[in-house]
Write a structure and sequence with these properties.
Enolase-like, domain 1; 12 helices; alpha/beta; four-stranded mixed sheet; globular; six-stranded parallel sheet; 2 domains; TIM Barrel
């Protein structure tokens, strides 16, 4: 079997209500064709950088033509090692997209689900947590009502972003965020897990102040309380709180994760299958995390193929904690997937069938033409300084 062509597909992502003027990023898919009529679909969605990503994938496509798609490790290592400049968000997202498409091809050719090629399944279903349920909400009362609705729909864990404001957070925003957490906890009760994502917004002192005030609310974890660049500072912060911390969505390879594992600053790691080297690399990251007794909760704020690929990973790794699901994206997933993701009572599993068990309906993509966003200005982050 030989690779004959590489095609890029793009569609507008579901808009975050916090985006400027409703601008949104795009989801980007890669379709790799073979001479035996089998193709694979991958995703490398890179928020607000999809044009750079498309160029990188099409450059790599020149190398891919006539290669055997079964040689996944050879292709991955070639794209990472046999170049002068490697790593970083754009290159690793391109490698991720290509890697995912190759796994889809191989599993389809062998007529098995992708997770069977990773050693088979270690669970029948995957616990998930809800993100995106709170968009557009402001008051504690609104958050409480929405949290109750998402829990009533079957979710047993939810995450949200209660803290807004600048790098050095003002007391007003600290107490407003605490009131939101309090309202949600009181509404959902003690048996529901709650996580808070600070989105790497705070300086060390502000983060420590926030973590101390969150202790009474029995959080499952706090995600990225400070920037991810300085892992030594994250380690120091972790030593001053009893709340489990997490990070990982902006680390791009097993080497990036190595120091995170060694300094033991987090309890949960969150690699993103779209950005950290695809399925091949996330399997290695998860295995390395297991040797440090760390749980893996793959980050996922991307499109439908990213979500499905993450589920195949989750089926195969013993230390999977939970899978992130943006509930605000599910309706759009349903419209473009040929076989939908089903979530019931807080659990899910990959769609049934060979490969990913699903595909992208290209005709459906026409309903969501790519967004013409403005880099930086279209991003939802407006109060860093």
């Amino acid at each position: 079997m030989k690779i004959t062509d590489v095609k890029i597909l793009r569609m507008a992502a579901e808009s975050h209500k916090t985006s400027v003027d409703g601008d949104t990023n795009n989801w980007l898919f890669v379709k790799i064709y073979t001479d035996e009529g089998i193709y694979g679909i991958g995703e490398g969605s890179l928020q607000y950088k999809d044009q750079s990503l498309e160029s990188e994938i099409l450059d790599f496509a020149k190398f891919l033509i006539d290669k055997d798609p079964f040689d996944i490790e050879f292709i991955w290592t070639s794209l990472y090692r046999r170049v002068t400049w490697t790593g970083g968000a754009v290159t690793m997202s391109a490698i991720s997209a290509i890697d995912l498409a190759l796994w889809d091809i191989k599993a389809k050719a062998l007529d098995v689900p992708v997770y069977q090629l990773l050693g088979g399944k270690v669970r029948e279903k995957i616990p998930v947590y809800a993100n995106g349920w709170f968009e557009g909400l402001e008051t504690p009362e609104e958050h409480a009502i929405a949290a109750k609705q998402i829990i009533d729909s079957g979710y047993k864990c939810l995450k949200f972003y209660p803290f807004i404001g600048k790098y050095n957070i003002e007391n007003e925003n600290i107490y407003k965020g605490i009131e939101l957490v309090k309202a949600v906890r009181e509404e959902v009760g003690k048996n529901i897990q709650i996580a808070v994502d600070i989105r790497a917004r705070l300086d060390f002192g502000s983060a420590l102040k926030v973590l101390n005030k969150l202790i009474p609310y029995d959080l499952a974890w706090v995600e990225e309380p400070i920037q991810f660049d300085n892992l030594d500072m994250l380690d120091k912060l972790s030593q001053k709180t009893t709340i489990p911390l997490s990070t990982g969505e902006q680390l791009y390879s097993r080497w990036d994760f190595q120091k995170l594992f060694e300094n033991k600053s987090v309890s949960i790691v969150q690699p993103d299958i779209c950005h950290a080297g695809g399925l091949s690399e996330l399997k290695k990251i998860a295995t390395a995390a297991e040797t440090h007794y760390l749980s893996v909760a793959p980050h996922n704020s991307n499109g439908p193929i990213s979500t499905v690929a993450s589920l195949h990973l989750d089926m195969s790794i013993p230390n999977c904690y939970k899978q992130e699901i943006f509930v605000s994206f599910l309706e759009r997933y349903k419209k473009v997937l040929t076989n939908n993701i089903e979530i019931q009572d807080g659990f899910t599993s990959p769609p049934k069938g060979s490969g990913w068990g699903t595909d992208i309906d290209e005709d459906a993509l026409t309903e969501y033409p790519p967004s013409k966003y403005t880099p930086v200005d279209s991003e939802p982050y407006t109060e860093f300084f």
